[in-house]
């Protein structure tokens, strides 16, 4: 498969990190644009924790599989729709977050409640259709709901997180779910005390400018990649 070696390596590191931390566990997928092309790499259907370079399929912007072993995930139109609508997006993660998704099935609207969650200060839209994003029309509808935002929730389903590259998207998913977890805990204690819009916008702009949270989370990805996942050992 002709692709950028560093990109593949980072995708594998990100996938293993997300799998260890319960983001995937049989459901979810990760993708990245191939620089300078109208193609993207996507984790194959039913990929386990022990990912390798052969576990990524190459898709084009017409939704056709061009290369790679195995089948594309059934919800590949999530990635296709977002890439077609957002030239600025270089990577997409779809997963079924326990805490974030809970806010699509309650009276509470998920907002920044913690400093690092302020990178989502411009809003977290909720896509109203809970069905699988299994065709191009549904992918386009999801991308429309996402708009210019960094993340979109899918009612009673999951989330899609975007970023300029694999590192940013992986860190974004980590921080998105962490903010949701803190909000979930706060809701269990009573009424959540959300950060006000002005404070969240100011703090979020600062974090996005210095990019510290993205670097810190990716450093954790790199560190954990040096350790052997016990589930990977069992799978050998």
Explain what the structure shows.
It is a single chain. The chain is 42% helix and 15% strand. The protein has helices at 5-20, 77-85, 98-102, 136-146, 166-189, 197-210, 212-225, 230-235, and strands at 29-33, 39-43, 56-60, 65-67, 91-95, 126-127, 151-154, 158-163. It has an eight-stranded mixed beta sheet with strand order 4-3-2-1-5-8-7-6, with helices on both faces. It is globular and about 50 Å long. The model is unreliable at 229-236 (pLDDT under 50).
Give the SSE map.
Blueprint: H1 5-20, E1 29-33, E2 39-43, E3 56-60, E4 65-67, H2 77-85, E5 91-95, H3 98-102, E6 126-127, H4 136-146, E7 151-154, E8 158-163, H5 166-189, H6 197-210, H7 212-225, H8 230-235
Parallel strand pairs: 6-7
Antiparallel strand pairs: 1-2, 1-5, 2-3, 3-4, 5-8, 7-8
Helix pairs in contact: 1-5, 1-7, 2-4, 5-7
How is this structure best summarized?
With 236 residues, the chain is α+β, with helices and mostly antiparallel strands. 42% of the residues lie in helices and 15% in strands.
What is the H-and-E element order?
A: HEEEEHEHEHEEHHHH
The radius of gyration is 17 Å
Put simply, the count of helices is 8
How many β-strand runs? 8
Structural class: alpha+beta
């Amino acid at each position: 498969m002709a692709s950028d070696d560093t990109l593949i390596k980072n995708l594998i590191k990100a996938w293993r990190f997300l799998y260890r931390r319960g983001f995937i566990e049989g459901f979810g997928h990760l993708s990245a644009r191939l620089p300078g092309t109208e193609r993207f790499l996507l984790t194959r259907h039913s990929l386990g924790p022990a990912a390798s370079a052969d576990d990524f399929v190459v898709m084009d912007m017409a939704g056709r599989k061009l290369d790679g072993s195995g089948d594309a995930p059934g919800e590949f139109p999530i990635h296709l729709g977002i890439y077609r609508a957002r030239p600025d997006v270089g990577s997409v993660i779809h997963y079924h977050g326990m805490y974030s998704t809970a806010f699509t099935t309650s009276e509470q609207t998920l907002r920044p409640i913690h400093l690092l969650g302020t990178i989502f200060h411009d809003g977290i839209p909720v896509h109203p259709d809970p069905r699988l994003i299994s065709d191009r029309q549904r992918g386009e509808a999801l991308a429309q709901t996402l708009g210019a935002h960094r993340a979109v929730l899918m009612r009673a389903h999951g989330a899609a997180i975007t970023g300029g590259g694999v590192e940013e998207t992986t860190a974004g998913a980590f921080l998105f779910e962490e903010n949701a977890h803190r909000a979930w805990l706060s809701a269990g204690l009573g009424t959540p005390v959300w950060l006000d819009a002005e404070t969240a916008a100011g703090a979020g702009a600062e974090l996005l400018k210095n990019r510290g949270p993205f670097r810190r989370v990716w450093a954790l990805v790199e560190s954990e990649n040096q350790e052997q996942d016990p589930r990977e050992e069992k799978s050998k």
